[in-house]
Amino acid sequence: MALVGGEGTSEGLRDYISPVFSPVYSGFGATDLEIGIAGETPLSVAILRAARTNEEVRHVVFGADSRLPMLFQYNPLNHQILVNDDGELVFTIARPHLLSPRVLYNIRDERGVARFSEMEERLSVAGTSTEKIVGAVARKPIRLPFVWVYGRKDSTVSVMGANIYPEDVEQALYDEPELAARTHSFCLSLSEDEHGAVRPCFSFEIRGDVSDGLRAEFAARIPERIRLLNADFRTAVAERADSVRPVVELYPLRAGPFAVDAAKIK
Fold this sequence. Notes:
By secondary structure, the protein is an alpha+beta fold. The chain has two domains: 2-152, no CATH class; 156-261, GMP Synthetase, Chain A, domain 3 (2-Layer Sandwich), CATH 3.30.300. It has nine helices and 13 strands. The protein has helices spanning 11-17, 42-53, 55-62, 116-125, 130-134, 166-174, 177-182, 212-229, 231-244, and strands at 2-4, 24-30, 34-39, 70-73, 79-83, 88-93, 105-114, 146-152, 157-159, 162-164, 183-192, 198-206, 247-252. Strand 5 and strand 6 (88-93) form a beta hairpin. Helix 1 (11-17) packs parallel to helix 6 (166-174), helix 2 crosses helix 3 (55-62) and helix 8 (212-229) crosses helix 9. The two termini are 22 Å apart.
């Protein structure tokens, strides 16, 4: 078993490490709020896996967003979680004995919340149920509410009306295990050419030598994976392919935009 935290965990990453660790569960928290707010359960993982392969389940449970979030269950006696008008999670720690309590605290994470009964209703609309989805994965599920998280709201890049999220790049990367094995980290930005045209830029920090052949592999495979994942980007590519074609850059360790991160633990 692997228990992970500190960064978002995509289903692609779960697949990537599952040959070594099984099962893989992640927790949700924030250093400026509280470390242990919510955790994945066999049921939440099973719902995510169903949403990953079934478009109707994804749409009914999570809405029209093309991204697949992380899904957790939490104890409402310890934490109250709301969604504000901007689609951001707002937290109140409900336990009385705290040195520094947090009330309606916003860490700018995008998401949603649902009571257990609401999740059951959504799954029913999609033609399934918690019992069918979880199957033999777990015993009778714990009837705790759900919270799902896409990530920090200010981490996107937008080109021609298409929002591209770090989660898109992460999922695309782990859908290509050979490329993921060479990648130490990545970042998103916008690239502006001499004519003022703006395109998305994906930068990857690479272990080992950076060859022209490896650059070609990343440039061909990662944008195509993102096109398949992200409906807005897919539409933008269909309408104006040249204007949204990503710039893909590869750098050796601790070079380029990654030089400033060299001293950080992450």
